[in-house]
Amino acid sequence: MSRAQRITVLGATGSIGLSTLDVIGRHPERYEVFALTGYSRLNELFALCIRHAPQYAVVPTALAARQLQDDLRAAGLGTRVLVGEGGLCEVSADPEVDTVLAAIVGAAGLRPTLAAVEAGKKVLLANKEALVMSGALFMQAVHRSATVLLPLDSEHNAIFQCLPRDCASGLDALGVRRILLTASGGPFRETPLSELAHVSPEQACAHPNWSMGRKISVDSASMMNKGLELIEACWLFDCAPARIEVVVHPQSVIHSMVDYVDGSVLAQLGNPDMRTPIAHALAWPERIESGVAPLDLFSIARLDFQAPDEVRFPCLRLARQAADAGGSAPAVLNAVNEVAVAAFLDRRIRFPEIASMIDEVLNAEPTIAVGELETVFEVDARARVLAEQWLQAK
Ligand code: NDP
Ligand code: MG
After folding, report:
1. Ligand 2 centre from 230 Cα, in Å?
2. ∠ CA(318), CA(323), CA(326), 5° rounding?
3. Is the CB of 110 under 6 A from ligand 1?
4. Which end of the chain has the least Cβ crowding within 10 Å, N or C?
5. Under CATH, which architecture does the 326-394 domain have?
6. Ligand closest to the CA atom of residue 131
7. Which residue ranges make up each domain of the chain?
8. Which helix (H) or strand (E) holds 374?
9. Is the pLDDT of residue 325 over 60?
10. How far is the CA of 92 from the centre of ligand 2 (A)?
């Protein structure tokens, strides 16, 4: 058998990072951890380094790096600690690395993920915000470097599994009519509309089916997550937004579907546990054990489907608007959403104001063409300033 695959886990201390390390730990003969990165949970990062003995760890500041380096040395480990975005890009592009798992949350993941793409690594993408911000440029970089880009997001991983192995020819040639993107509807699917102004961050983060980081949990509660996923799917599968239909499916057993012109609809099912798409993408085109329990259809008993309610979930409409507008609009949508979610988690705004803020900033900003990465970062920075001004003025 060939040597173990060397893996960099960007965002190792997060929900996806930990699930990935759980799967990797089940297959030591196949996978070796090359680098682990963290941001605020540095005790957790230290514990992960002890368990996986990576060659590198990356932290945000020089002070944190010195502390972690001393602790690792005292524990007898040779792991080298690098700092900041430069360190993240270094461990993504290192010639020794085979696969990069992109699981940093938000815009902060864009440069390190692109560094992995440009270095031709196999990239397993959880960080949907990177693709939303810079879709055209990101996909150009993927094609230029002939990178294998595999989706970890459960819906996109499901769609990937429901498409033929060679899908480079485009959806028309494959006979695909529509992509059916499933959504759980989150914790507020049935909450009376009058109560949404009073929901707490804790309620928003209590997802009925999935255990996830706080930002994506709030995105799921507002259905902005589905909006970002709609844009993500357009780029991953080279598809117009109109071809993607969002289907609310509260049980989260079907992770998405592909509807073909002959009337066949292919679905991927499984328990809602991210270790399934992670194991799929890690081993693709092979299959490996993930630790996920077999699906028990008898205990699930029924599967329900509903159309999404865009009055309850205006973020979905706003994301579709940004997807249709193209250019800089998705980057603006993403940046304002990041500021709005942080403000909601800090209890500075109420839940429905997430959508109000995005609506106002998105509609006030002219959409411009995005020809280079620096423009994406300028658009992102300006949208954050406008979002902060909205917060100050309210
Ligand atoms: P978490 O918040 O649990 O983890 C985020 C990770 O990113 C942590 O390792 C965190 O470090 C790190 N991080 C945060 N900010 C920065 C920064 N500025 N620079 C460098 N690293 C940073 O999020 P999730 O694991 O839930 O989600 C990660 C990504 O995967 C998101 O883009 C999300 O949309 C996507 N995703 C997640 C799913 C899930 O089930 N959780 C499903 C599908 C997609 P630290 O913890 O040390 O602060
Ligand atoms: Mg998803």
Report:
1. 10
2. 125
3. no
4. N
5. Orthogonal Bundle (1.10)
6. 1
7. 5-151, 161-309, 326-394
8. helix 373-393
9. yes
10. 23
Does the 5-151 domain belong in CATH 1.20.1300.10? no
Q: Is 258 in the pocket of ligand 1 (CB under 6 A)?
A: no
**Ligand of minimum distance to the alpha carbon of 155:** 2
Answer yes or no: is the C-beta of 36 below 6 A from any ligand 1 atom. Answer: no
**268 φ, ψ to 5°?**
-115, 130
Residue 11 C-alpha to ligand 1 middle, in angstroms? 6
Helix (H, G, I), strand (E, B) or coil at 262: coil
pLDDT digits (tens, 9 = 90+) for 57-87: 999 999 999 999 999 999 999 999 999 999 9
Same fold, 5-151 and 326-394: no
CA of 322 to the centre of ligand 1 (A): 23
- pLDDT tier at 172, thresholds 50, 70, 90: very high
* Other residues' Cβ atoms within 10 Å of the Cβ of residue 264: 11
Helices marked H in 75-189: 84-93, 110-118, 128-145, 154-162
Closest ligand to residue 272's CA: 1
The confidence score (pLDDT) of residue 210 equals 84
Q: Is the CB of 108 within 6 Å of ligand 1?
A: yes
- Residue 90 pLDDT greater than 90, yes or no: yes
User: Which residue, chain included where needed, has tokens 């255990």?
Assistant: 211
For ligand 1, whether the C-beta of 13 sits within 6 Å is yes
